């Protein structure tokens, strides 16, 4: 790791001010990703602003009838929170599908959004990477790209966003609350992460120095009909090749509302509202699910080693929608993916 | 001509100046330790190199293997992916704090009884992780224990023994709580 200085903030304003007063500063919450990146010499902050004393660990109701998740609440405390389990079991499932118990005990909600791609070329400083070093090229295009994007990629970057939690947050249409040098603002989840385009070095739309303070979940939690289906090389403690967050609202057999978001396929959590619209008002049948799945992968493009993901995604969407319609998943049922 | 001084030794191609250190107070296995360490010292390195508690192991040093697992306020974490300075107000427990040679922790005895290791390098992390699992109280069946122990790798492949050892202690705890 490069040498750096460290300070610990006890108030959000102090953290923001301290960050702004140090050139090359970064925030550190749980540290599970940034310290790893610092050990690999991918991240080289000169100063770390420690956040774990900030009063942002609460999980509490919002005036709008939703739930606010503190940015410093751990992923474990969030997944196992009684209100999350009862009202947002899709989020419970997605969080528990990711990482290990140790990492979930450390990683924070804000940090989960800020984690960077696990593209091996991004991590390997001996290879070119436009995300790590803009203009240097992309090792993954034309290289080994089994884990890479099939949707929304660019000629600059085909990296994927690694989070499971964020796929559920995209499907649930959460709001990201941030605080920065210019005050506070709220960012709809879909506008938080970015596609790579010509600026793959930017993962998200935070302005310099902005800090995530919380995540607001809307009142609607799709607690009856949901599925988080994660497909990966081993059945635990591995990143998704493809994951699907599916949530339905049913009136009898008719779909009255639908949410569909994918992980492991794009530079950001990939919510497809056109596919959702193909589900709404339709009967919850395999044919309906197949039409929505076909819509999602319509524009998909493989890069060689990851071509298999297109068909994998299509089938995973159909299966996740079927599971959601059946209401066969339950909060903290940790074996859901081994019993499809 | 380059003016050499103690602070510019690194630039002149010599030995770098010693890193800036600060005082970090840690509570480890119930004992207070005051360390003079650089801010980039991980909790793992602080435990091993400064407090000389070498039971906690460095495996991958990237949060992938679980060999460095310790308990912080009763919760299991990877000490390699955390800075020591982030744990000043916390209660840290390592394998040395769970049992002693004279008085083995039930998990240590169960690991011996069930032949739950070969080389033993992952064992302190496995046992601290298992204690964390027991503290959480969410894993009871074999399938649940497997899933909740997935953050600890064993390259010798002693998983069957590890599972049996953890299951035995989990079962004894739940029968205790029923009494």
Describe the structure.
- The complex is a heterodimer of chains A (340) and B (179).
- With 340 residues, chain A is of the alpha+beta class.
- Chain A contains 12 helices and 12 strands.
- A 5-stranded antiparallel β-sheet of chain A has the order 4-5-8-6-7. A 4-stranded antiparallel β-sheet of chain A has the order 9-10-11-12, sandwiched between helices. Chain A has a 3-stranded parallel β-sheet with strand order 1-3-2, covered by helices on one side.
- Chain A is globular, with a radius of gyration of 19 Å.
- Chain B is of the alpha+beta class and 179 residues long.
- Chain B has a single domain, classed as Ubiquitin-like (UB roll), CATH 3.10.20.
- Chain B has a 5-stranded mixed β-sheet, sandwiched between helices.
- The interface between A and B is medium-sized, with 32 and 33 residues.
CATH class of chain B: Alpha Beta
The CATH architecture classification of chain B is Roll
The average pLDDT value of chain A, as a whole number, equals 96
Strand order, largest beta sheet of chain A: 4-5-8-6-7
Question: Structural class of the helices, strands and pairings of chain B?
Answer: alpha+beta
* Poorly predicted parts of chain B: 1-13
Total number of helices of chain A: 12
Rough shape of chain A? globular
What does the oligomeric state look like here? Answer: heterodimer
The proportion of residues forming helix of chain B, as a percent range, comes to 25-40%
Rg on CA atoms of chain A, Å: 19 Å
> What is the ordering of alpha helices and beta strands of chain A?
EHEHEEEHHHHHHHEEEEEEEHHH
Strand content of chain A: 15-25%
Largest beta-sheet characterization of chain B: 5 strands, mixed
Write down the domain tally of chain B: 1
Q: How would you write the strand order of the largest sheet of chain B?
A: 2-1-5-3-4
Structural class of chain A: alpha+beta
CATH topology-level fold name of chain B: Ubiquitin-like (UB roll)
Cα-to-Cα separation, first versus last residue of chain B: 81 Å
Q: Identify the biggest protein-protein contact and residues per side.
A: A-B, 32 and 33 residues
């Amino acid at each position: 790791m490069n040498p750096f200085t460290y300070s610990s903030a006890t108030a959000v304003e102090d953290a923001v001010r301290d960050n702004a007063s140090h050139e090359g500063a970064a925030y550190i919450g749980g540290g599970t990703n940034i310290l790893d990146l610092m050990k690999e010499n991918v991240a080289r902050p000169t100063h770390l602003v420690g956040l774990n004393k900030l009063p942002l660990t609460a999980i509490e109701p919002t005036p709008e009838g939703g739930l606010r998740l503190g940015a410093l609440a751990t992923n474990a405390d969030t997944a196992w929170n009684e209100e999350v389990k009862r009202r947002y079991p899709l989020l419970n499932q997605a969080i528990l599908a990711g990482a290990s118990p140790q990492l979930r005990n450390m990683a924070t909600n804000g940090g989960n959004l800020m984690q960077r791609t696990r593209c091996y070329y991004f991590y390997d400083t001996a290879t070119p990477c436009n995300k790590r070093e803009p203009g240097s090229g992309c090792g993954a295009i034309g290289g080994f790209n089994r884990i890479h994007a099939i949707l929304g990629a660019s000629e600059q970057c085909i990296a994927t966003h690694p989070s499971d939690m964020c796929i559920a947050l995209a499907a649930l249409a959460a709001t990201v609350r941030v605080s920065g040098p210019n005050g506070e603002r709220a960012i709809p989840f879909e506008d938080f992460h970015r596609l790579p385009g010509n600026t793959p070095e930017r993962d998200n739309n935070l302005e310099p120095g902005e800090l995530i303070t919380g995540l607001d979940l809307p009142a609607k939690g799709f607690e009856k009909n949901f599925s988080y289906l994660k497909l990966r090389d081993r059945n635990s403690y591995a990143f998704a090749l493809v994951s699907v967050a599916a949530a339905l609202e049913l009136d009898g057999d008719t779909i009255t509302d639908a949410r569909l978001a994918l992980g492991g396929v794009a530079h950001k959590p990939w919510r497809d509202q056109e596919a959702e619209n193909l589900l709404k008002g339709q009967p919850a049948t395999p044919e309906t699910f197949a039409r929505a799945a076909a819509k999602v992968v319509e524009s998909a493009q493989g890069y060689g080693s990851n071509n298999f993901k297109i068909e994998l995604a299509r089938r995973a969407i159909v299966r996740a929608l079927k599971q959601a319609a059946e209401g066969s998943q339950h909060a903290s049922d940790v074996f859901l993916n081994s019993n499809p | 001509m380059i003016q050499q001084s103690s602070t510019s030794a690194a630039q002149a191609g010599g030995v770098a100046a010693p890193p800036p250190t600060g005082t970090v107070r840690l509570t480890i296995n119930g004992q207070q330790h005051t360390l003079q360490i650089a801010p980039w010292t991980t909790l793992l390195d602080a435990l091993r190199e400064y407090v000389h508690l070498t039971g906690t192991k460095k495996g991958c040093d990237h949060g992938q293997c679980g060999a460095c697992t310790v308990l912080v306020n009763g919760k299991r974490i990877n000490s390699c992916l955390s800075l020591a300075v982030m744990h000043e107000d916390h209660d840290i427990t390592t394998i040395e704090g769970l049992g002693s040679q004279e008085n083995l922790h039930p998990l240590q005895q169960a690991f011996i009884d069930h032949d739950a290791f070969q080389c033993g390098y992952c064992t302190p992390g496995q046992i601290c992780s298992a204690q964390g699992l027991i503290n959480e109280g969410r894993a009871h069946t074999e399938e649940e224990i497997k899933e909740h122990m997935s953050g600890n790798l064993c390259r010798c492949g002693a998983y069957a023994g590890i599972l049996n050892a953890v299951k035995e202690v989990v079962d004894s705890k739940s029968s205790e709580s029923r009494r």
